[in-house]
Amino acid sequence: MPHHYIPNVREIKEQMLRETGIAGIDELFADIPQKIRLKRKLNLPAAMSELEVKRHVRAILSKNKPFTQMPSFLGGGAWPHHVPAHVHSLIQRAEFLTSYTPYQPEASQGILQALFEYQSLICELTGLEVANASMYDWATALGEAALMCARATGRRKFIVPELISWERLSVLRNYVSGPDLKIVGIGYDGRTGQLNLDQLHRELDEDTAGVYIENPSYLGFLETQVDEIAEAAYLAGSKFVVGVNPISLGLLKAPGDYGADIVVGEGQPLGNQVSFGGPALGIFACRGDEKLIRQLPGRLVGMTTTLDGKLRGFTMTLQAREQHIRRERATSNICSNEALCAVAAAIYLTSLGPRGLRELSEICAANASYAMKRLKTIRGLETPIFSSPHFNEFTLKCTKPKLTIEKFNARLLSQGVHGGKPIRSEFPKLGETALLCTTELHTREDIDMLVEAAARAVGGKA
Amino acid sequence: MTYRQARWTREGCLEPLVFELSRAGRKGTSLPPKVLARIKIPDKLIRRSLELPELSEPEVVRHYTRLSQMNYGVDLVFYPIGSCTMKYNPKICDELANAEEAACIHPYQAEETVQGALELMYRLERYLAEIAGVSRVCLQPSAGAHGELLGMLLVRAYHRSRGETRTQVIVPDSAHGTNFASAAMAGFNVVVIPSNNRGRVDLEALKSAVSEKTAALMLTNPNTLGLFEDEILEIAGMVHEVGGLLYYDGANMNGILGKSRPGDMGFDITHFNLHKTFSTPHGGGGPGAGPVGVVRKLEDFLPVPIIEYDRKRYYLDYDRPNSIGKIRSFYGNFGVLVKAYTYILMMGASGLEEVAETAVVNANYVMRKMADVSGFEVEFDGPCKHEVVFSAEPLKRETGVTARDVAKRLLDYGMHAPTYYFPPIVPEALMVEPTETETKEELDRFIAAMREIAEEARLNPEKLRAAPTATAIGRLDEVKASREPILSWKMYRKLAKE
């Protein structure tokens, strides 16, 4: 049976072989030693028709319960937002979707310009001059940032807050394991969650390549000592790296405006579906300092002109940093990135505009603020556990004796509400606590439902 | 057949940038109402200005639709870019990945609410393990190079667990650039070995390169010349003999699907490029996915979590004390995994074998038919697998026209250019991978185009050097782009002011 994705059916293949004097298909595989030839069919299901495959896959997927069908308060690095129909529709344009990396700029101006626009929009958001065309996700962008700091300074220590996602920290440790950089964690104020500046000062030394903070922090509160941290890093000759949720930048000061040398973050909320955590979109931006630019990982799209200088155009540039030219001396091994997600982000940010992003940012924060205000009143719950101001994520602690956060969440789920991400195993000191998130997806009714379900879960009333 | 790419121009540029299209007061989307609540942001953290463009939705749509028209995709043109396997991307795969039950689930949802996602990943892992002949597969890496990095971290973890510090990774000179970079990124020293006069690993060179310092050999098979490493068993023996591991770069797996498996060849670690072999669209650079398969002795080191099934439910297993940890957040590019899973089901076992057979027939057809096109030669004998590398050196000697010129001229024929100047061991290389989803007629058009271009090189080389002219834009000043980099609108405005 010929397969409908394969136009050269058996008769045509035979004709092609005849025309080129090849005895048969086997001749073309004759150089594979007998011992390693697969002498049976692969043990896979037989091919199915499109309809059967569709039914099969839909049947599997139907065992998922999407967050569109129940109020869910999960965030923690993957943030559900509405993806406008036109954003989705545009990135499904086959010319974008089915193109390869734009190695031929003459035939790829579309994706190149869209990526240049993405880079430019990320620069506006972060307050920096340069952004690359994407990394895999926030965590790998952080790993690459640490490596870049080490290359740029010739130093080997990278400082991070203790209150960071364990996944991000684990990725970071793996990324810096090659050059064996030292990762040092800085503690926090037990009441506010703010970074312990005394400890930071003690750790900053002539071997410190970079200081990293997240703002908003992993647990949702704002780090308000950014000027002090930036100055301390600067005085120690270290780079200052800030991790962001880009949606927050509609409301919050650009990290570039408080001294960040590098900004990383998760770009998924910019017009991309959560999709069980991937594809994601690693944001990577830096100051327009030439020394830093030459150390950047990943693809960069630059503006230039045609050879005759008459027409503006875009091309991948500074490729001497990259693996296909520099091989083992490249700044990174990254090749395929998340280009289409970056295009979605460009379309999304262009559609929101400055007022839209600010409004969205406010909606997300206001929903969290409203949720905290109501949840606070429930006996047996504490929210947030840190007194600092929060953006759109916050901690919720179960203080009722013997009620674990998992049990609490299970009780929410049985009432049709998905609670936050338990963080006890990441931060045992913080107790039976979960990290919750609100975005524009949450209606007032969703939040009220959470509050009522939470009250019942701890055996009280809202 | 002639083709002209759409070309939207005004005042010295193609379509303007979104910043240039902006008019104050416009907006391109709508938002739901805000609940009444006081937001407390400290004054010093409040944003004072944000310079994003302001466009209405119709303008946004027209802008990006026009941009899309100035872009080659495999839905539009023949895309024979070597080592990239630009085959047709079935639409059903996109449709299913975009379903709400796939797109709108959160990685931290309770396991009972994502049983479908876990089941799909569990099944995909089993299928990939069968295809490559490996024991377990980690679906997390986001791309091939990411898989290579993971592979190298596994190599290190394995040797460490045996109390050994091995510092060298051996890579043939014909390897993909990522191999060198991935090994270096993981902290290894790269030892490059030359190819022999058959375009394959030189066993003598390998013999003198292997030692107790050898952590691994990285190899792609078929290699980047499209040739099967027919001495792979000897190669594997030599590396294993000294205690090293074998890493399989899966970029070229399309040529051997169902015919031979990396695990059976002796490879310990194998990555897959789902966006190549398994047909998930490459999106102009990504997202891809680069799952990594391993033999049994390396399983314990795989990243957490792995997906398990206890005959009642699927679950994420984090309790793996020897795991290297994470190499990205969450579980991988799930959307891409759904597409690859769908593709495998559409093809089935026989279909995948037909993929390899047809891809190889197509590549050999192009190779043989090009034999009488003067100006191009193939340096190595024997059948190729999924791709063929031509040298345009004879044409260059005769006419001064380069492989790059030829490649650029092909764009005018409504075809994407082959990869050129790679692998670096072939002078004036043109690396052609037709894939199995092209018709004989399209391959004939390609061969005819190459013949015409070679003729043109003799009669009118200037025209060729001026190519392409049918694309939205002609050749760009890449030297200027890297000497005076303009990487954002902000940099551009700053330069304009100066």
Explain the overall architecture.
The complex is a heterodimer of chains A (462) and B (498). Chain A has 15 helices and 13 strands. Chain A has helices at residues 10-19, 25-28, 50-61, 85-91, 94-97, 109-126, 138-153, 166-175, 197-203, 226-235, 290-293, 323-326, 339-375, 405-414, 444-457; strands at residues 130-131, 157-161, 182-186, 208-214, 239-244, 262-266, 282-286, 301-305, 312-316, 381-382, 393-398, 421-422, 433-437. The mean pLDDT of chain A is 97. Chain A folds into 2 domains: 74-79 and 355-457, Alpha-Beta Complex (Aspartate Aminotransferase, domain 1); 85-348, Aspartate Aminotransferase, domain 2 (3-Layer(aba) Sandwich), CATH 3.40.640. Chain A is an alpha/beta fold. In chain A, helix 14 (405-414) crosses helix 15. Chain B is α/β, with parallel strands linked by helices and 498 residues long. Chain B folds into 2 domains: 92-346, Type I PLP-dependent aspartate aminotransferase-like (Major domain) (Aspartate Aminotransferase, domain 2, 3-Layer(aba) Sandwich); 355-479, Alpha-Beta Complex (Aspartate Aminotransferase, domain 1), CATH 3.90.1150.10. Helix content of chain B is 37%, strand content 9%. Chain B contains 17 helices and 12 strands. Chain B has helices at 18-21, 57-69, 91-97, 100-103, 115-132, 144-161, 177-185, 203-209, 232-241, 262-265, 334-369, 393-399, 403-411, 440-459, 461-465, 478-483, 489-497, and strands at 136-138, 168-172, 189-193, 214-219, 245-248, 269-271, 292-294, 306-309, 314-317, 388-391, 419-420, 429-432. In chain B, the strands form 3 sheets. Chain B has a 7-stranded mixed beta sheet, with helices on both faces. In chain B, helix 9 (232-241) links the parallel strand 4 and strand 5 (245-248). In chain B, helix 6 crosses helix 7 (177-185). The radius of gyration of chain B is 25 Å and the shape is globular. The mean pLDDT of chain B is 97. Classes of the chains: A alpha/beta (462), B alpha/beta (498). At the A-B interface, helix 1, helix 2, helix 3, helix 4 and helix 5 of A face helix 2, helix 3, helix 4, helix 5 and helix 6 of B.
